[in-house]
Write a structure and sequence with these properties.
mainly alpha; 69% helix
């Protein structure tokens, strides 16, 4: 199955969720995935900066960052500068 097909399938699940309470919804799966990630690993900040610099869609990257981090990318950069310069 291609990524495009998987996206379509997850959209269908979101739009028409199963009636069973034993099924985990896609939002919960995403939350569990993010919670399990080792976000304090060395180099992840540099990897993010590299992705932003190489991105052809920086606005999209920044929107995704804000969606996942609940903080703008620019706000993150400001905080990183301020908190690392003390």
């Amino acid at each position: 199955m291609t990524t495009e097909e998987k996206v379509s399938q997850v959209r269908r699940i979101i739009e028409n969720p199963p009636d069973s309470r034993t099924i985990t919804d896609p939002d919960t799966v995403l939350a569990d995935t993010l919670q399990a990630a080792d976000l304090e690993a060395n180099g992840i900040a540099e990897d993010l900066l590299d992705l932003w610099q190489k991105s052809r869609d920086r606005e999209g990257f920044e929107a995704l960052f804000e969606l996942l981090a609940d903080k703008s990318f620019d706000g993150y950069l400001d905080a990183a500068i301020a908190q690392s310069s003390r």
